[in-house]
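Fold Annotation — chain and its backbone
Next Lines — sequence and tokenised fold

***
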Amino acid sequence: MRFSYDKFADHKLAQQYLDLYVDENLEREFSENDELQELFDKPNLYAGLIQAFAIHLPEQHDVELFDLVESSEILRPVIKSLGWRDPDSLTTPEGELKRRFTIICGVRSNFLMK
């Protein structure tokens, strides 16, 4: 597998943001932290970084980015992240798709129909 430098940088930055700005209360940090909010206010500018968050958050904190950021603008980077995620972050221990993931898939199909 080959990563481009910008994708590698996005993942390093996302991890650094999580290490620096996020404590036990992810929801509060994502809603009150100005540095994080700026990223999600400009999703076209920070699409790679948003995609990296959409991978790191479920794998490390068992929370979807959509649970922390309410914006349909982040849909495209979140969808692009799904192929890079650990399959265990998409399914329950019984092998069924997590409820939140099925909601994302439903949003995606509605989004593509428009």
In short: The chain has one domain: 5-113.
